[in-house]
Amino acid sequence: MMLRGMGFDNTTSLYVASGKIYNAEKYMTPLRELFPLLQTKETITSPEELAQFKGHSSRLAALDYTVCLRSEAFVMTQGSNFPHFLMGHRRYLYGGHAKTITPDKQKMVLLFDNPDIRWDRFRHLMQDIRRHSESKGFGFRKHSGSIYNLPMPDCMCQQAES
């Protein structure tokens, strides 16, 4: 619902980067109905190709990382190291022009918790969250900020071309 509210429709190609999903059929079926172009590690590889990664969680995560690194947009849904490294790597690789959406979870909880909210209002608020969360550009890291999210030195973007 978050993605649909943000304006992504059923023509959107979607890749779900994750480990084993508990009760996957139950939870993935509604997502596949909303986004029929949904892909996972299991759908973009043959069983033979995936076999060499099975039993090695770091290799499986690297597969997800590689797909997400090259994606047009990345939506961060949790706060572990994976998305933080990925955000910084994408920012560095694409010269600050990689679209990354980091939804405000506190605002989203309030929306999802409201049983009286209408779709038009929900959609408007989700698009507002998307607009305010799309991280593009180099940005400036706070002194205590993560080098992984903003890998560039603060002065790098101010350097004149030689």
From TrEMBL:
Record's keyword terms, sorted: Carbohydrate metabolism, Fucose metabolism, Glycosyltransferase, Transferase
GO biological process: one example: fucose metabolic process
Molecular function (Gene Ontology), one example: glycosyltransferase activity
Domain of life: Eukaryota
Stated family: Belongs to the glycosyltransferase GT106 family.
PANTHER family: O-FUCOSYLTRANSFERASE 9, O-FUCOSYLTRANSFERASE FAMILY PROTEIN
Protein name as annotated: O-fucosyltransferase family protein
